[in-house]
Amino acid sequence: MDPGPPLRDIGCFTAVAQRLSFSRAAAGLGMSQPAVSQAVARLERALGLRLFERTSREVQLSDAGKVLLPLAEALLDQVAAFSAEAARLAVPSGPAIRLAYCPLVGGLAARVARRLARRSPARFRLPISHLAVPAGGPLAGATRLRLGQLARHDVLLPRLRPAGSVWARLAALLPEATTTTRSRATADDLDDLTAALDLVAAGQGLLPVPRLLAQTVLRPDIRFLPLDTGGLAMTYGLVWSPDRATAEVMALVQAVQQILRSPVQTGLR
Fold it and tell me: Which of 52, 38, 49, 50 is nearest to 9 (CA)?
């Protein structure tokens, strides 16, 4: 049986794709940049495909890379699920789960609860894949947008953007006019993205949002347009005490992973 490309190489490809930078990917993986570059080159040779378009100034996913990225992420999620299940089998079961969540993932929490009723920290990526725009605004008729097209529009970003955060990376990718003179800080944070949609509807700016929000919020005054962010994603985690990795917790981890790999069907493009 052909084992396929090594998971290490696939992990390096995913890290570079998410950051669009070999140096930042290497830092995040705790590897040297040449080692990451060699891993990606090795994967490209094994697949017979070019995964990135590289220039002296930027790194972008190729068409093939864009298609393979979600599959690579799903594969790594499967590996994480394997480890989680092994951890579940290695510990005694416990009684119940109390799940705390922010408003953004309320719909996800309800789906997790329904799935659980039928039957080490885990991280879950929520791709920033859509742009919330006013339904009557000039962009409402667009079919797909790129970050480079937003230079003449206000983009809502949090006032505080820690280095390496998804908001800092997004700000770095936006056209200079957008991030320096036209972007508006709505608050100290943007944890409640559903509330920030009121600002979008009021014409105060455009809001990049994760796929989960675009799939679960229906508002007649807001349109969600597909947005190419090069693989940017918000990361949420389920966190529990190491000595309480019960069967119920592992079931919760698996339920969330399965749901995020099989998003709800909507009319979004």
Answer: 38
Residue type, 109: A
pLDDT at 169: 84
pTM more than 0.90: no
Buried b vs exposed e over 33-56: b needs ≥16 C-beta within 10 Å? eeebbebbebbbeeeeeebbeeee
Helix spans in 48-180 (H): 63-90, 106-117, 166-173, 176-177
Q: Over 90: is that where the pLDDT of 29 sits?
A: no
97 and 250 Cβ atoms separated by less than 8 Å: no
- CB-based contacts of 75: which residues, under 8 Å, 6+ apart? 7, 10
Q: Distance (Å, rounded) from C-alpha 88 to C-alpha 81?
A: 10
**Is pLDDT above 60 for 131?**
yes
Please tell me whether residue 267 adopts helix, strand or coil conformation: coil
Domains detected in the chain: 7-62 (1.10.10.10), 71-120+239-261 (no CATH), 123-234 (3.40.190.10)
Q: How confident is the model at residue 101 (pLDDT cuts 50, 70, 90)?
A: low
* Spatial CB neighbours of 151, under 8 Å, sequence gap ≥ 6: 174, 175, 176, 177, 178
Q: Which residues contact 212 (CB under 8 A, 6 or more apart)?
A: 104, 105, 107, 108, 126, 260, 263
3-state secondary structure of 184: strand
